[in-house]
Design brief:
By secondary structure, this protein is mainly beta. The chain has helices at residues 7-12, 38-56, 123-134, and strands at residues 2-5, 59-71, 78-90, 93-101, 104-105, 116-118, 138-145, 148-157, 165-168, 171-174, 177-184, 190-197, 208-220, 223-237, 242-255. It has one domain (2-255): outer membrane lipoprotein receptor (LolB), chain A. Helix 2 (38-56) runs antiparallel to helix 3. The protein starts with a strand and ends in a 10-residue tail after the last strand.
Length: 265
């Protein structure tokens, strides 16, 4: 799981974005349901989501990323570019191919100038599943995600334990973060994930990074699957009052046989 900002970015651009434009929109909390045990929901989630992540190994899809920059007050918004890629999830990591920036071929995400990230399709989900089983998890409230009742939990991960790597120029930083997870009350499935950095080092030149993914049910070959649908990746620079953000969409899902090894060259 990687995030990247070249040195000129935090000197000249100064990003941010999230709040009202998260992938699930603003979700008003609902009253706590006395008939639902939040501990039982969490236990169900730890079991239910193992199949979700293993099923991702059988899918390929297309990823579209629209990148923007602007001021924190919402003014001077400028569309930077559109990045597209073919994507699969193999052996626990994303595999990207056919990467285009405004229809021009690129050798990899790391060749893009500006802010980019990897891991929204499967890595963020896989890490969340694992951390739900190892970290202290606290219940927050109940809410609605696309008309489905969900229980919201959070957990914190220190920089020493963090799997999240940030590269700024030639320096790397392990990021402490808080994860908020929306879990279906009925099924235990993870419906939405938000990850926010905690206590970023001043040397990064960044105030906060916010990362999220929204999952939806897709019907394919007569079966319904819970898969990533939209996401957001945002960087906040409070001192310069600027922001940069990426809006992410996954589409064109196709399955391939688990007996065949799929490779992107």
């Amino acid at each position: 799981m990687k995030s990247f900002f070249p040195v000129w970015l935090y000197v000249c651009l100064c990003p941010a974005f999230w709040a009202a434009n998260g992938p699930a929109g603003d979700i008003p909390p609902t009253a706590r349901n006395p008939l639902v045990d939040d501990r039982a929901i969490l236990k169900r989630a730890r079991a239910a989501n193992e199949d979700v992540y293993s099923s991702l190994q059988s899918f390929v899809c297309s990823e579209e990323i629209d990148r923007f920059k602007g001021k924190l007050n919402g003014q001077s918004v400028k569309a930077l570019d559109k990045v597209t890629a073919k994507l699969s999830f193999e052996r626990g990591i994303e595999q990207y191919s056919d990467i285009l920036q405004n229809q021009r071929p690129r050798s990899g995400m790391s060749s893009l100038a500006g802010a980019w990230s990897e891991g929204e399709f499967g890595t963020l989900l896989l890490q969340t599943q694992r951390l739900l089983g190892t970290q202290k998890v606290d219940f927050d409230s109940y809410a609605s995600v696309k008309d489905e009742q969900a229980a919201i939990y959070h957990f914190d991960v220190s920089a020493e334990e963090s799997p999240w790597d940030l590269a700024v120029a030639n320096r790397h930083f392990r990021l402490a973060f808080r994860t908020n997870v929306w879990i279906s009350v009925n099924t235990g499935e993870i419906l939405r994930i938000e990850r926010v950095t905690i206590g970023l080092e001043q040397a990064t030149g960044i105030s906060e990074i916010q990362w999220s993914i929204l999952l939806e049910h897709f019907s394919l070959n007569g079966k319904t699957w819970l898969l990533p649908a939209t996401g957001s990746y945002a960087v906040i620079y409070n001192e310069s009052h600027h922001r940069e953000w990426n809006e992410i969409r996954f589409a064109g899902y196709q399955r391939y046989s688990s007996e065949a090894l799929l490779r992107f060259e």
